Amino acid sequence: MVGICLFAVSLIVTLTFNVFLAPSIETHFQIEVNQPFGIWGENGTVIDAVIYQPRGVPFTQVVYAKRPVVILVHGFSCDKTYMKGAAYELNKRGFVTISISARGHGASMGQFAGGVYFYNETLAMVQWIRENAGRFNIDVDRIGLVGHSMGAVTVTNAATMDQELGNFWINSTVAIAGPVLNYTRGDPGVPGTGEGQSEFSAPHLIGFYLPQLALTRNVQSNMLESIIEGRVNDTKPYNYLNIIGSMDQAFTVASAKEVVYAMGEQPVFGVTDFTALPEGTVYGNFQDGTARKLSVVPGIDHLLEMHDPEVLVEMIDWFEESMMLTTEAGYPGQVNVFNITEPIRFSANIFCILAILILFIPLTVYLGNALKPLMAPSPKAAHDIPEKDTKKLFLIYGAIFAGTAIPVLPIILTFNLQFIIATDFLLSNIFVLFGFIHSMILLPALIILMIFENRKYSEKLSDFGLAKESIPSSILYGITIVGIYFIMGNLIATNNYHNMMPYKIWGFLEIFGYLFVFFLISELFLRGLIQTKLSRYKGKKIWKFPGKELILTSLITGTIQGTGLGIIFGMFNFYASGSIVTAILIPFACILLFVPIAAIQAWFYRKCRNVFASIMVSSLFLAWIFSIIMPAIDSVMVFNIIT
Question: What count of Cα atoms within 13 Å lies in the side-chain half-sphere of residue 284?
Fold first, then answer.
């Protein structure tokens, strides 16, 4: 009941702030990006966008005679939906806003390969809005850009390129959580050498800490396209505000200071070292485009920056002052944090996540009980194995699972197998690749062990969790579980955070296929060979204490699985970085991660007595996550491990 109530609250908040109180008239459209803005991407790429027009009083506080416009650019792995909250807050102040999805993100076409960032889409949208200004009553002299994370890098470079191309279209720019002056690994605190991104940042990690790893288009060379050192000055770009949370994990406050310091006449700042740059002070003036400001928001991390009231107030104030709207008739006065409703709108995601977590156990129980007549019969032969033999077998199985993980990386390197998985989801490819290769090495051992147990203990396929009578019901069970949670999450997140539909269906299906094979083999090994020897299947209600067999299953299979995959990633980390300590610690971290995962998998297996239940849940869920969180860079941009 608590979970249902939380989901209802989430749905009500979503409807209230995205429908009934939405200050916008939304129009979704697409444009084609060509020369001269195809230089950094692909010509003919169709990108997806949405234009938000102020709805008028009482939803909007003011409607100017000619409307200012702001183009919003999302960060890595998001799409145009992520910027909806900022668009709404600007709409309430009379701005027209346009949010775009970068190529390879959301519903936009193309490959995310022309560079790490997407200046071409941004400049093409600026050109489009100028050409269509009359349709929306837009003032072409009041065009602003705002971007978050990778979008912050994008808008900074787009505003700089705007002047390099001789356009001078962009009036003011707000960068939230980014960019960096350059990507060199110079001495921190020394002007001109570059603070760079924090070590948390994946592109930074790949570019500098994993030099043996390269892409067919090298990440580091792509990042060079985003260097602004030597290109920016006190008027390029015009009227620049940089906002960063004090707890940002991807960029640093020192990096933000260095960026702003490079954009002004140094005597203006009154300091000779960028690390001493004061925060919260406006330098220069808005009339000639020299306005510069660094704003550090305390207690805010990378994810929450775009939804924080103080950040949004800073953004709105900057655009209104830089566009001289404070002198326009009908100006409603300075905005304050009490006018910002974005945290309430964004809270729908939190309520939905809590609801899903709370509903997980009763929902899986209910569906499992509903499918009980189609469950496989209880395995019998495994229970006749002497306890002494069982313990020996567990040690043997664990050694085999962990031992077959050792040659995974050498085999990949020797035979250049890094190219066999080449979906659009770059970062997921390496995780899926390791699991798939490990399962292929494990397969012969699995077959031998199944034959051995069949001959010595007369075990049948049902004892390994492959009873044919329950395969349809267990597959249906897994698909239904994932489907319900997907629908619940999509109802909320699509209107608040991200379009959670896999944006490239073929890539999703390919990832699912590899994961299915991996989980089929590993589940037969872990569930079929191990859990059947621990489970008693006495019909206990799952919401009661499930008994020691489920706990033992989680500990044993989680330790085996975590050790095996931990060995792979530990070797990978040692090969890439040379850190022995990290390589040793990774297996222990994987064990801590996989023990609760093993408990979930054991739970599903217990409800259907068939490995296909946990296989479908695990492979579908991970394919879904990889399709959303780890978006495309390029179908051919897979990790090329240089030997």
Answer: 26
